[in-house]
Structures are given as structure tokens and as C-alpha cells.
Amino acid sequence: MPDFTVAVFFGGRSSEREISVITGMLAANLLASRYRVVPVYLPPEGGMETGDFTSPKDLAEGSKKHRVPVRLEGRRLVRVRGGRTLCTVGCALNCCHGGMGEDGTLSALLAFHGVPSASPSMPVSAVFMDKSLSKLVLKGLEIPTLPSFSAEEGDTDTARRAAELGYPVVVKPARLGSSIGIKVANGEEELSRALELAFRLDSRALIEPYLAGRRDINCAAWRRGDEICLSPLEEVFSESSILTFAEKYEHAPQPSKIPAELPEAVVRTIHSATKTVYAAFSCRGVVRADFFVAGEQVYFNELNTVPGSLACHLFGRSLRARRDFLVSLIEEGKTLPPQREIVSSGILESDLFTGGKGAKRR
After folding, report:
1. Up-side HSE of residue 139: CA atoms within 13 Å toward CB?
2. pLDDT of residue 260
3. Which CATH architecture has domain 128-142+212-305?
């Protein structure tokens, strides 16, 4: 068995955890031919578990598959009971969709413990998990997005602001993906129902105009050395007013088209915007940028820092090509960024605490 260990993290405290299990199991099985792979499941109630997981059904509700509670101690993964070391993690791969996983929580934990990661860092994950924050960032980068505003439960001017945008509007939980909780509202009554659903799932909602006749276009990016590599563009299709969870994961009305048939100017715009965001955040790992296209007008919709099945299908159609892509991510990610010097002032060894802050001696 190869002695280099890859820990594949999936699950998390999120409504998207079931999709995360599918992504995690696919990645773990594909990587197992090249590395020792340790699957690490993050249950919604917290903690970490590992086991002989080889199929999504092993994590289904009611599964009898044995789970071992574990924790990180530096780069070591150890049993909670007894503290025995199971492995030293050579590289981690984040397959957690949404919630406390894709939002930077896991990235920060791995960085704190000094675990190399093949996935995006905490800052980019946190910003783009929150759609209202990502709109501000994209505006700062001068990348076009649809006009929008965010609302919290109890806000009294939401209906007025939605009317100013103009119906119909799209209402979505600000920090969820996979089309969960998204509704189109054609008036104030439907807006109220859509907000009620959004606030069941999140404390903040994003409201933006519904763009009739739009096309949904995806573009993935990853870093190979100093080069930012871009995927062909993908067009995904929907028979509904918005692309639904069922169409994404259960029964697509028709297969997506790769490459999408678009004017060359639109392709250049999408590639440029994706590369700009990736470079601005000094990203590592793979991300997927989602766009709306209306005619030749392009709007950046959102950035997925843990894309479904890690966007492997955009870089290769065969299982072997997808495995090779994941291997490339691991090879790029297994070296930690240079550690910066940590300065010590020596104040803790001092007999006096006389500064203007902290434990001032009276």
C-alpha cells in the first residue's frame, strides 16, 4: 500500500451533506489506486469519524457500518478513545458542500494543525459561501452581477426593496447551494412564502431579479504550478424557472453540453472573470464559477469552492481522466505554503503588565 496518506473530508453541518458524501466517496475511491486514502466523515452534530467507507450507502441513515471517532492532533489523525495514531495526513481534500465545511471552517482547522490541503483556503471559502458578501467582492473586482440585496428575518422594508427591483425576483438562502431553498416570487405574497422557506434554512436571504431566458454556464479553474488552468465551458439545462436540486442530482432534462455553444466574446469574458477571481484570492485547488448569460451579456452568479464531484467532469469524461485530475490536485496541494515567522515579544516573561491593553497591573 502506498505510504502517502490522503484524508478525504466530507459531510458537515449542512443541508448539502448528503451530496457531499457522494462527492467524498467518488474522490476517495478514485484516489485509492495511487495513495493510502482515509475517509473522514463530519457528522452534522459535530466531530469526525472514519471507517471502512466505500459507498455512499455506508453513510446513509440506519447504516450499520462501524464508525470510529477521531480527531486531529497536528498532522496526526488519532482515535478519540485511547489516542492511538491512525495515520499522519500527507494531504487533505475538502469535499464538504455548504455549511461548516465549504465556508472555511474546515480549511481553517486544517491550516491551524499544519495539514497540507489540496482545497481552497479559509478566506476565499468564507467570502464565497455567503452570496451577499461575494456580490461585494465581485463589485470590487468590477465583474458584472445582477443587482441584489440581502434581507434578514424581521426586516420591514424587504417587500418595498423587492418591488423596486421589479418582480419576478429570485429568493435564495445566502449561504446554501445545490438549489436548496431557492424560489421565484411573482409578487408580495409569493415573496413572503419564499422568505419563510429561506429563513428556515439560513438567517439571511439574497433577493435578485429573475432573468428570463438566461443560460446557465459553468467554468472551473485550478492551479498547476504558476499556471491557472481553465476548463471548457459547460451549459446546464433546466425545464423549470430555475435549475432545481432534482435536475442537478436526480433526473436532468438533458445532459449538459461541454463545450457550450457560445460566441467567442462571451467565452473570453467568462474565462477572464473566472481567472480574475482565482488570481485575486491566490486560490489553490479547484473551484467552479457559475454564470448567467443573456444574449451576449454575462453575469457572475457564484463561486463554488467545493464544486459538486469536484468538477472532475469538466476536465475529463472517463474515470481515468477524472482520477488523474484528482491526483494532480493532490500533488499540487501536498506542499504547505511557506511558514511565516511568528514573533515573540517576551512580555509573558516580564514581571510587570503596564501596557495600555491586556492584564494591566493596578
Report:
1. 9
2. 95
3. 2-Layer Sandwich (3.30)
